Automatic annotation (TrEMBL):
Gene3D superfamilies: Aspartate Aminotransferase, domain 1, Type I PLP-dependent aspartate aminotransferase-like (Major domain)
Record's protein name: L-threonine aldolase
Complex and partners: Homotetramer.
Pfam families hit by this protein: Beta_elim_lyase (PF01212)
Reaction catalyzed: L-allo-threonine = acetaldehyde + glycine; L-threonine = acetaldehyde + glycine
Cofactor(s) the protein requires to work: pyridoxal 5'-phosphate
SUPFAM superfamilies: PLP-dependent transferases (SSF53383)
Function comment: Catalyzes the cleavage of L-allo-threonine and L-threonine to glycine and acetaldehyde.
Record-annotated Aromatic amino acid beta-eliminating lyase/threonine aldolase domain positions: 3-291
Keywords, alphabetical: Lyase, Pyridoxal phosphate
InterPro entries documented for this protein: ArAA_b-elim_lyase/Thr_aldolase, Low_specificity_L-TA_bact, PyrdxlP-dep_Trfase, PyrdxlP-dep_Trfase_major, PyrdxlP-dep_Trfase_small
Length: 351
């Protein structure tokens, strides 16, 4: 019963086999390997974006911070949700890689910015000319940090607000596949057709060993991106091992199958909890994470049975009144089984 995060999952055999297959003979370094050429072609096809430039890095924080660094100058600000990963979980990497740009936090339920709140924030920024940070970029996370999903139309509505102010738009797609499976949109509809300029395209949370793609739909910033990636220490020397993971991930729609499995497990868990009187969902379950509150005594039983997940906020205590509701974040991955889900549900119900 492992629900701590999707990155606690192992690597699917297709990806590990591809690494082994790539592991013979010589291959040119630093992104000039033959598999990277395949990856570039596949991503251009998947996104219907023949002009797009594609780069690989090993972490999502690097993907986000480098992407933002080409979109936002040091004296400007990135508009993002209050709960965005770039705000809460990247130790200031976006600020560091942009050379000091600020983040301006936008409100909205379920970790989703509303177009109205975004417009208020952007309009409010830079109102005193030289005295303020300037308007820089907008960053949208999909799927969100609270397991919800923006539809392509919702992304487009946010990007329209950005466009009114001439701002570029980044998407943190650490869980892009999960969002896509939920929304039914095509990769193009969810990104450049909706106004996204740069996508951090997640691999690791959805099964890869450690690779994320950065997709620049407008290649204007490509060279600058390459320089910043190298300067930031994120240009892999034995790059074929990043390429091989990404190629296997994309081949035959594996990335979508993995995400579908994770989403289905989360739906099963969410529905099972919702059907139980003492449990309550905190956010709609639209991707692979379930946020739910249930009594402390059920958490104690789950804990005793070895279930792994985070109480949310993380500093809640298992000590205290047994009937008090405590919140949990329960994340499913490509390898979560129905048996694991049902075992946790049985414990929560006290069967
Ligand atoms: C996990 C995650 C990332 C990337 O995190 P790394 O640990 O740097 O790979 C980025 N955005 C979101 C929303 C995430 O959940």
């Amino acid at each position: 019963m492992h629900f701590a995060s999707d990155n606690t999952s192992p690597v699917p055999p297709q990806i590990l086999d591809a690494l082994i297959a790539a592991n013979h003979g010589y291959a040119m370094p630093y992104g000039t390997d033959a598999i990277m050429a395949e990856v570039r072609t596949m991503i251009r096809e998947i996104f219907e974006a023949p002009e797009a430039e594609v780069y690989l890095v090993a972490t999502g924080s690097a993907a986000n911070a480098l992407a933002l660094s080409v979109l936002c100058p040091p004296w400007a600000t990135v508009f993002c949700h209050r709960n965005a990963h770039i705000e809460e979980d990247e130790c200031g990497a976006p600020e560091f890689f942009t050379g000091g740009a600020k983040l301006t936090l936008v409100e909205g339920a379920d970790a989703k910015m509303t177009p109205e709140a975004l417009r208020v924030s952007i309009a409010h920024a830079a109102r005193a000319g030289v005295h303020n940070v300037q308007r820089g970029a907008v960053s949208i996370t999909n799927a969100t940090e609270q397991g919800t999903v923006y539809s392509a139309a919702e992304v487009s509505a946010l990007a329209d607000v950005a466009a009114d102010y001439g701002l570029p738009v980044h998407m943190d797609g650490a869980r892009f596949a999960n969002a896509l499976m939920r929304s039914g949109a095509s990769p193009a509809e969810m990104t450049w057709k909706a106004g996204i300029d740069i996508l951090s395209f997640g691999g690791t949370k959805n099964g890869c060993m450690g690779v994320e793609a950065v997709v620049l739909f407008d290649p204007a910033h490509a060279w600058e991106f390459e320089l910043r990636r190298k300067r930031g220490g994120h240009l892999f020397s034995k790059h074929r091992y990043l390429s091989a993971q990404m190629a296997a991930y994309l081949k035959d729609g594996l990335w979508l199958k993995l995400a579908a499995r994770a989403n289905d497990a989360a739906t099963r868990l969410s529905e099972g909890l919702a059907a139980h009187d003492s449990a309550r969902l905190l956010h709609p379950t639209e991707a692979n994470a379930v946020f739910a509150a249930f009594p402390r005594e059920a958490h104690r039983r789950a804990h005793a049975a070895g279930a792994q997940y985070y109480l949310w906020p993380m500093d809640c205590s298992l000590d205290g009144p047994g009937d008090e509701l405590l919140s949990a974040r329960l994340v499913c991955s490509w390898c979560t089984t129905d048996e694991e889900v049902d075992a946790l549900l049985a414990i929560v119900r006290g069967d």
